[in-house]
Design a protein that fits this description.
The complex is a heterodimer of chains A (about 200) and B (about 500).
Chain A: H1 3-28, H2 37-62, E1 77-84, E2 87-91, H3 98-106, E3 111-113, E4 117-124, E5 129-134, E6 140-146, E7 152-157, E8 162-168, E9 180-186, H4 191-202
Parallel strand pairs in A: 1-4, 3-9
Antiparallel strand pairs in A: 1-2, 4-7, 5-6, 5-8, 8-9
Chain B: H1 13-48, H2 57-87, H3 95-118, H4 141-172, H5 175-178, H6 181-184, H7 194-225, H8 233-267, H9 275-288, H10 304-333, H11 342-364, H12 367-373, H13 378-407, H14 413-439, H15 455-490
Helix pairs in contact in B: 1-2, 1-3, 1-15, 2-3, 2-4, 2-8, 2-13, 3-4, 4-7, 7-8, 7-9, 8-10, 8-11, 8-13, 9-10, 10-11, 11-13, 13-14, 13-15, 14-15
The chains are: A alpha+beta (about 200), B mainly alpha (about 500).
Chain lengths: ~200, ~500
């Protein structure tokens, strides 16, 4: 189960809990009576401590898993990405101008060996775009914004070989929904034959 | 009893009647805009379900822009109008400034409709810099000018309106009392209603948000008028989300303020200003201006301290909401001699939608998860939960409360049950399709989905069935409420 689907089920469970509690309170009005205010205040205090404690625990657990680059880690591969209405130029070489971008957009997809720490250096030549990486099975794995005037560094590691699609996740104009790119993740050994079979799969 | 109360030392009979008619005009505007924007939202989900295969995507994006901005504007002005009306119990908001705001809102809405529906201006509701300058030949320069002109007009009249309501509060309660600081220092409440505290916090935050919006428009104007000058994309993004987040957040709070003021009347119990309540809302005032940072998690160039702050603040902003407002609302209703009407049910269900939407929002505000949820359908899922099933229900409840109060015409239980059942089933069914799609990595703002993301089409097809139920519910609601409002207006 993906982290997103796990979060979905946690959400559904909590939403049902909230709705159930509201319905229980609504039903309680069938038999009106006085409420002990001291008991209500105690309950609220306990609720406050429980909720705050839960949030502190979740914060402590999740703040360690930030997607931002860690200065002490060194990436094995650098991939340059530039978004421009309505395609991504993805290349192993820096993309400095429109000619580089065209070359990157229309050349063969870049290849990344499995398990390698790769750093995507992502920017834009026009508006904001969203560089979002999807697994071969269509799961969103990570993303970063492509901003004009800035280079955002997204580090990822891919364990499964295959075709990884890139979709634009920041609205960028009329053909936003068609803006995409791709790259290959290939086994560390036998790279060339694997690439040939992936290229055959994409029809390129 | 209908407000303003004539002869209470604040209002003369003629003024009170004029203020009631003005509030009814606001509610009519709110209901008209809501119905229109709802149908536009329906169009968008039908578009994503491939119902209009031959239609150009420019239409989807123009409608997306109008729907988003239209809904934000509708519920902001609805919340402001309701707050202004309820404040007449304690002070004198200016009737002329409210009229100016109504005129400005109507003209602004017309300009936005022209820019999007005639000019096909389609940048999404937050017009992220520098997209309006990169139309790809879709919208002409006049549409860009019309769009920014509309925003300048709306921000101007709304700022004046916000400041006037703050003035009205300050004329009755010194600001430190309106913010409950005297209660924090252990003194009695001095008759400050909890609603006034909520309204004061919302309006101060709203003024800050609108000020950021004005600065943003100024920077857009400078770049447009001075060739060769370009703004910093990260600064513009910070300003955009500071403004956008605060306006949508305080719209929610304005709706909550209405519930604080009116739900006690149905429950037969007071909702008094207490130390806990004062702590909670002052904390909200402090945190709400920082929470916007969670919109920029995926901008890795943003200083890291702001990213951490975004998650911490977003998490702890949920504490006062849950522990004081939602718990307080439940404690108010629990075993109370409750008078259940359409209005009181809408207030109650609105609190529930706020709570459920808050769960979705806290999940999304976790940076580690946001990298997998950002700009997927999880985002519209959670904000539609606390909008459609939260503040919208609260303000529809207010309009119905007002209509029944002014006409004295009793409501029909069968109609009430039908409206509530259709809203609940339609609303949560529609939202579940959004959440499910977001959890399956379906992006938002796609006019059509490619083969790899075909689950987006499936989710849209499920959603359109549930939206049909919402449309029927809203039609029934309008029959019950708009009719009464019109009768009261023309009496």
């Amino acid at each position: 189960m993906t982290p997103q689907v796990q979060a979905f089920w946690i959400f559904v469970a909590m939403a049902c809990l909230v709705a159930g509690f509201f319905l229980w309170v609504a039903r309680s009005t069938r038999q009106a009576h006085e409420v002990n205010q001291d008991a209500a205040r105690r309950l609220r205090r306990n609720f406050f401590y429980s909720l705050t404690g839960l949030l502190v625990i979740v914060l402590a657990l999740t703040l360690r898993h930030m997607p931002y680059p860690v200065p002490t880690e060194r990436p094995e591969r650098i991939i340059f990405v530039v978004g421009k209405q309505f395609a991504f130029g993805i290349s192993s070489r820096p993309i400095a101008d429109d000619a580089d971008w065209e070359a990157a957009t229309y050349s063969a997809p870049v290849q990344i060996p499995t398990g390698a720490m790769v750093e995507f250096r992502v920017s834009s030549f026009d508006v904001n775009h969203g560089f979002a990486v999807y697994s071969p099975s269509g799961e969103l794995l990570g993303q970063v914004q492509a901003m004009p005037g800035y280079v955002n560094r997204l580090r990822m590691r891919f364990r499964r070989p295959g075709i990884y699609h890139v979709f634009c996740l920041e609205f960028c104009g009329m053909d936003h929904y068609r803006m995409r790119g791709l790259f290959f993740v290939v086994p560390r050994t036998n790279t060339q034959s694997h690439t040939r079979s992936l290229l055959a799969g994409t029809g390129e | 009893m209908p407000l303003p109360v004539a002869g209470d030392g604040l209002w003369q009979e003629g003024e009170a009647r004029a203020f009631r008619r003005l509030t009814l005009a606001w509610m009519g505007t709110m209901m008209f805009l809501f119905s229109t924007m709802l149908l536009l939202g329906y169009f968008m989900r039908l578009f994503q379900a491939n119902a209009f295969r031959t239609m150009r995507p420019e239409w989807f994006y123009a409608v997306l822009t109008l729907h988003g901005l239209g809904m934000v504007a509708t519920w902001f002005v609805g919340g402001m109008a309701a707050t202004g009306y309820l404040l007449t119990r304690y002070s004198r908001p200016s009737i002329w400034i409210s009229r100016l705001a109504l005129a400005g809102t109507l003209v602004g809405a017309g300009l936005l409709a022209a820019a999007t529906l005639f000019g096909l201006f389609g940048t999404g509701w937050y017009f992220l810099y520098p997209l309006p300058f990169y139309s790809s030949g879709v919208w002409p320069p006049w549409a860009t000018g019309c769009f920014f002109g509309a925003l300048a007009l709306l921000f101007s009249v709304w700022t004046i309106w916000v400041l006037d309501l703050l003035r009205a509060i300050a004329s009755r309660f010194p600001l430190r009392q309106a913010l409950g600081w005297h209660v924090l220092s252990g003194r009695p409440s001095l008759g400050v209603p909890s609603f006034v505290l909520v309204a004061t916090v919302s309006l101060i935050a709203g003024a800050a948000g609108l000020a950021a919006g004005m600065v943003l428009l100024g920077l857009w104007a400078v770049e447009w008028l001075r060739s060769g000058y370009s703004n910093d994309a990260l600064l513009m993004k910070n300003l955009t989300f500071f403004f956008g987040h605060i306006i949508t957040n305080i719209t929610m709070y304005l709706g909550v303020g209405v519930v604080y003021e009116l739900l006690p009347g149905y429950a037969g119990r007071p909702w008094k200003l207490s130390k806990a309540l004062a702590w909670a809302w002052n904390t909200v005032l402090l945190l709400v201006v920082l929470a916007y940072a969670h919109h920029l998690y995926m901008d890795f160039a943003q200083p890291r301290v702001l990213q951490d702050t975004g998650q911490i603040v977003s998490y702890f902003l949920s504490v006062p909401a849950a522990v004081v407002s939602i718990f307080g609302g439940l404690a108010l209703v629990y075993a109370a001699p409750m008078r259940w009407t359409l209005a009181s049910w809408l207030f109650f269900l609105g609190l529930m939608g706020w709570a459920i939407g808050g769960v979705g929002a806290v999940i999304d505000s976790t940076v580690a998860l946001n990298s997998r949820f950002h700009n997927t359908l999880w985002v519209p899922a959670h904000f539609h939960t606390y909008y459609l099933m939260g503040v919208v229900l609260m303000l529809l409840g207010f309009a119905h409360h007002l209509a029944v109060d002014l006409t004295g015409e009793p409501e029909r239980p069968a109609m009430r049950h039908a409206i509530l059942a259709l809203l609940a089933i339609g609303g949560y069914g529609f939202l579940l399709a959004f959440y499910w799609a977001g959890a399956h990595s379906v992006p938002r703002r796609f006019a059509a989905y490619p083969r790899e993301l075909s689950q987006g089409v499936a989710a849209a097809r499920v959603a359109v069935v549930f939206i049909a139920l919402i449309v029927i519910a809203v039609a029934l609601y309008l029959w019950e409420t708009a009719r009464r409002c019109w009768r009261a207006f023309s009496a």
